[in-house]
Amino acid sequence: MKRITFILLIVFSAFASVSAQQLFVEAEQFEDAGGWVNDPQFLDQMGSPYLLAHGKGIPVKDAVTKVNFNQTGTYHVWVRTFNWNAPWNKNEAPGIFQLIVDGQIVGKKLGDMPETWGWQKAGQVNIKNNTATLALHDLTGFEGRCDAIFFSIDPNVELPVSGETLATFRKKMLDIKPAKTTGEYDLIVVGGGMAGMAAAISGSRLGLKTLLIHNRTLFGGNSSPEISIAIHGGFKLPPYDKIGTVIAELGHPSQFQDRVVDILNKEKNLSISVNQHVIGAEVSNNQIVAVIAKELKSGKEFRYKARYFADCTGDGNLGYLAGADYRMGRETRKEFGEDLAPEIASNLSYGATLKWHARTADKNIDFPECPWAIQFTEVTSHKVMSYQWFWEAGFYKNQITDAEYIRDYWFRVIYGNWSYLKNHSSEKEKYTTADLYNVTNVLGKRESRRLMGDYILTQMDVEGAWRNHGDSAVMCTYTIDQHFPQPENSVYFPGEEFISEQKHNHNPLGPVEKRIRGVNVNQPYMLPYRCLYSRNINNMFMAGRDVSATRIAMTSLRVQGTTGMMGEVVGIAASLCKKYNCQPREIYTQHLEELKAALKKGVPAKYDAILKAIPM
User: Mind listing the domains of the chain with CATH numbers?
Assistant: First the structure.
């Protein structure tokens, strides 16, 4: 399993569990997903990937598979699903579907309950043959979802709803064996965004046997084709103008995904596990010994060992699993003396974004009424053909535990607004041929956990331009850029705003109000190396928006060009750790001058640069 193409071959090896009188089927393992999409984003919260009927108002093609029963007879059937609109109105259920077994409709109306993820009784079915065909039949095109299907001859079976009991039940039913060690590495990088790719490639080119574990198929994180965030932040800048080489070679992943995959595949020291999500970390004496990763389709678990690890997940998932110190939310002004921080600690965060686009067709395009969605008016509706960066929701929610809620709220906003424009707006004639052709189901996040290192970057560091920390390692060029709910939007949607406003705070030492491509430019400042490794998990690096910083400082260093450079620095530092058989902290305490020399040298270039740095 050294390459992406090999690892993908294992995903169909597990399908369903059969005992004498029951059958458990994971929806994500259907042989033909039809028009349903496999959504693994919320595995840590609800326990599994699931199939999503993401039809943008048009029922999607059936998902179909065959299953085998050990015995025929009458089976009672349950489906794990929920009415995703229940947090707002449990009486309106937009995501309705049916389960069809050998042509028999077993659940005439599924997805209208329960109010949270759980088991809905579909009914019973007479199984006449040992092999049966199952189909998930979408009725609405509005985000119906199915996690699993359970058949039992016993009508009184009690099914676990959530948590560890459900996880244990899945493993038993699918006969998931304890994870065996699949490989041992010098460096394991978790997360295939810009930071993770840069760390993995850099480590590999500098001689480390490296593994990149990524829980999606497409690479790039927020810059992947699924989300397509632009790469802001300058790179290849003095004093370390070779840092950024890998970012420039990769280009923008949303535009050059084939090139990105080709570069990753050609790194001789790099192995890649795609569609695997790290669900556990084995820790001994404040060090990660191994990680456990779940394959998102088969459910199989793999154990990977390494000397060093890098958390490039954005959400700080690996650090969280390992027990690393972390922060969430906004610190008080008093704690670090940051005058941009609030006087009282707050969980107010950046919002997250779901992208959508419409286009003009050559015929009239209808769109259904959406009584379950946000109900807009002439005053509150947005007469536009696509999202903008300021379409942002979830300011008052936990960006990790409430992520599915935030994503689903976006469905209510997007579909509600579009339905109003098409059916009720005073300008509906303008939208007669407008087609809502793209609504992503993948949430674009801006913040969550920040893992603590030996140094915590603050507002004063950002504003103290060119301050020499001694271990300055990454040149950062973006402003302090806070987002808040737009006041007008708050009037109409208090607590559930979806429009933001940004407040840029320029470094007073820099060129105030200078603008490049409409984005504010900050006087550059340096991120210390000590922000790139954990202060209490001794062999763990981090790169990305989860590095060691206050919330105010994070608003500046979170952009993709900057996080990619962090990854390159981590790869370089990890190679020195192997050379000296030491921990990341000891690179600072004992080998700092060699780190600086290595940063001057940078990572060997192998490909032409196609991405130009924009110093912002």
Answer: 4-174 (2.60.120.260), 180-339+446-601 (3.50.50.60), 356-439 (no CATH)
Q: In what order do the strands lie in the sheet with 519-528?
A: 472-478, 519-528, 515-516
393 bridge partner residues: 352
Number of H helices, E strands in the chain: 15, 28
Instruction: Give the residue from 261, 296, 255 showing the smallest Cα distance to 275.
Output: 296
Give the residue from 486, 464, 482 showing the smallest Cα distance to 554: 482
pLDDT (average), residues 260-280: 97
Residue spans of alpha helices (H) in 211-301:
245-250, 257-266
What pLDDT is recorded for position 385?
A: 97
Contact 496, 393 (CB under 8 A): yes
Q: Mean pLDDT, to the nearest integer, of 48-63?
A: 98
Condensed to tens digits (0 to 9), the pLDDT of residues 445-473 reads 999 999 999 999 999 999 886 567 899 99
Q: How far is CA 131 from CA 25, 68, 79, in A?
A: 13, 5, 19
**10 has pLDDT over 90:** no
Cα–Cα distance, 163 to 221 (Å, whole number): 27
Report the C-alpha gap between 21 and 157 in whole angstroms.
11
Q: What backbone phi and psi angles, to 5 degrees, belong to 200?
A: -65, -45
Sign of the CA dihedral with 392 first, then 412, 219, and 256 last: negative
Distance CA 430, CA 337 (A): 52
245: which residues sit within 8 A by CB, 6+ positions away? 236, 568, 602, 603, 604, 605, 609
Residues 11/33, Cβ–Cβ less than 8 Å: no
CA geometry: angle 602, 185, 322, nearest 5 deg: 95
**How many C-beta atoms lie closer than 10 Å to residue 443's C-beta?**
22
